[in-house]
Write a structure and sequence with these properties.
It is a single chain. The N terminus is likely disordered. A hairpin with a 2-residue loop joins strand 7 and strand 8. The chain has 468 residues and is an alpha+beta fold.
Length: 468
């Protein structure tokens, strides 16, 4: 299935970019959100074309329809379909007015949906949700969204689960979970077959990583320069020399997290939050062999809890990466156009997302100003407290991070994964039994045929001896 570019078209400057704005306020009396006092809901499900034959999705939709809910399904086929479906929903908003737009696919499908909402100046009170159907489903795993279609769609219909979250951008393209740049960005299961990815699941990313590390190699990008703010008040297109600092070296790893994990196996940005107005950066310079040796040496000398090596963890509103050669970038498994200059930035609390709890929100952390992350955080009386909390959370990489190596391997596993595995296992078992049955039947037929042939041959020989 072809993917489209998520480049954003903007109308007003926010956080260094021009973004569309509206006068509506989430959860305000005039926001026009339907059905909140009713038991019936209306969803628009944008479903990835490769998942059209999923029986669990069909059963979930039929179940919700039988309960009186309206589920409108649009299936992607060509590049640009997600954008077209969202455009139609926005244009017909006054007459159709869905409760929620649901991205039925992986993190890439969710990115396309969010990018289309920005592009077409969608009202800010439109909420979105994810029906996770991708390979790793990292955002769903980290936030606790169930892989079971019925549970995920019920979450999308619950108005009490809506939270304002940030949108991350790289060169104007949206990503809601994680972006990587440099050699590590080539670690992707994108070129694996759909069947192989279904069989391996999130392990496909690990297989791709080992193949890249031990076969292709991870040569660093030499002479890379990183420009980053020392004040949250500066912007990537408007800053003074005293508001920024620089890092220079041979870039090996750059991971940028709106959320935390990659491949459902590693928390590459272990402290990322969805609504703090900041992006988390994990930066590592040097060669892979040297950095692995240094981490192992520190783990032996100082203990696993204190080992960090040269890994820098930064929490910033933006960052600029410049290199003398082409930088490849990957957004949630989808490649971005290569460039010698990458600009990462964030649109604070720009979209309303359905989440089962606050584990990746400021409200769920032991930080000051958690009240700013509630559903009324956009109101004036909470803005100051939220900005104060944002400033407190900002980190330019000078602080050590205890338990880094331990927390890197504490990736979350999504609820409902067993229910998604059982139908696949049943299909595999059914096919295995069928092939075993065919094989046994073949052996039986062959053995029987061979016996008859041998019996016939023996009878002819006996007859011949009788004649003699």
């Amino acid at each position: 299935m072809a993917e489209t570019s998520n480049a954003v078209h903007h109308d007003e400057r926010v956080g260094g970019l021009m973004v569309p704005t509206t006068t509506s306020e989430h959860n305000s009396p005039s926001n026009g959100k339907p059905h909140q006092g009713s038991s019936q809901h209306k969803l628009l499900l944008v479903l990835h074309g490769k998942r059209i034959d999923d029986e669990m999705i069909r059963e979930a939709i039929q179940q919700l329809k039988s309960e009186g809910h309206e589920i409108v399904v649009r299936v992607t086929w060509d590049s640009g379909d997600v954008d077209q479906f969202v455009k139609e929903a926005v244009e017909l908003w006054d007459s159709q007015r869905y409760d929620t737009l649901v991205a039925g696919g992986g993190d890439g499908t969710l990115n396309e949906l969010v990018a289309a909402l920005l592009k077409h100046n969608a009202p800010r009170n439109i909420s979105i949700a994810q029906l996770p159907l991708g390979t790793a489903n990292d955002l769903a795993s980290a936030t606790g969204i169930s892989l079971h279609p019925l549970e995920a769609l019920r979450l999308a219909m619950d108005p009490t689960t809506v939270h304002p979250v940030d949108i991350a951008l790289v060169n104007g393209e949206v990503f809601m979970n994680l972006a990587t740049a440099g050699p590590v960005s080539e670690v992707s299961s994108k070129h694996m077959s759909h069947t192989l990815k279904k069989v391996l699941g999130p392990v496909a990313v690990a297989v791709a990583g080992f193949r890249q590390l031990f076969i292709t190699g991870l040569p660093p990008i030499k002479g890379t320069k990183i420009i980053y703010p020392t004040s949250p008040d500066s912007r990537p297109d408007d800053y003074r020399p005293d508001q920024v600092s620089e890092l220079k070296g041979d870039l090996l790893v750059l991971a940028v997290g709106q959320a935390r994990q990659m491949g459902r196996m590693i928390n590459v940005c272990p402290d990322a939050l969805l609504d703090d107005g900041l992006l988390d950066f994990t930066v590592l310079f040097g060669t892979a062999g040297r950095q692995i040796w240094q981490l192992l040496s520190e783990a032996v000398a100082r203990g696993l809890v204190q080992a960090q090596g040269d890994v820098k963890l930064m929490k910033l509103p933006w960052m600029i990466i410049e290199a003398p050669e082409i930088l490849k970038c990957n957004r949630d498994g989808e490649p971005s156009p290569p460039s010698t200059r990458l600009v990462f930035e964030v649109l604070p609390r720009r979209i309303q997302l359905h989440l089962p709890d606050t584990r990746l929100l400021m409200a769920g952390q032991a930080v000051e100003a958690p009240a700013g992350s509630s559903s009324d955080s956009g109101k004036t009386k909470h803005k100051g407290r939220w900005h104060k909390g944002r400033r407190l959370l900002m980190n330019t990489g000078n602080k050590s991070r205890p338990r880094l190596l331990v927390d890197l391997w504490k990736a979350q596993q999504p609820p409902g994964r067993l229910s998604r595995m059982i139908p696949g296992l049943k299909r595999i078992l059914g096919k295995t039994l069928m092939y075993c049955g065919l094989l046994a039947a073949g052996f039986a037929i062959g053995y029987s045929t061979q016996g008859r042939l041998m019996l016939g041959s023996g009878s002819r020989k006996n007859a011949h001896y009788d004649e003699l």
